[in-house]
Amino acid sequence: MRTLIIATALLFPVAAFAAGSASDSAPPKPTQTTNSCKNGQVWDKKTKSCVDAKESRLDDDTRYGAVRELAYAGRYEDALYVLAAMSDQNESRVLTYYGFTHRKAGRMELGMQYYNAALKADPDNLLARSYMGQGLVASGNIDAARVQLAEIEARGGKSSWPETSLRKAIQSGKTYNY
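The structure assignment produced for this chain is given below.
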């Protein structure tokens, strides 16, 4: 299994670093949210139209999918707008994506603050640890990235996407644009 994960990561490096759950290695597929919607809007399947992310008919899972998709498309400010509409701003998953989006938008310090908040809310958030570690690799702090890798492994994440992607970043010194 580990060989398959590593082989896939080598063939499709962007997929290995796509934002998602700890087990989700595939980048989100573009939908009407990225193809048609603007300014933080999200595609509403029921109305078949773009709606404001704060629209009460949208649930957090729909918003979360939109955040992943927008971040993957490099639309960080739109992703942040959608994140601000999430019902629980202190949820570890939400804090992780605030960290990821700010880091990828070039606000490394703010991103790290959000990762730390995500880990305070859930120390077992392997994805937050992996993204934090990748940010540390990007800033040249390999030793601190190794600490996050060890934490991922100690918390049961050996051979998971967070572990594999961070290990690859540490070995290569490369992280991927998202």
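Interim note for the steering committee: The radius of gyration is 16 Å. The longest strand covers residues 41-44.
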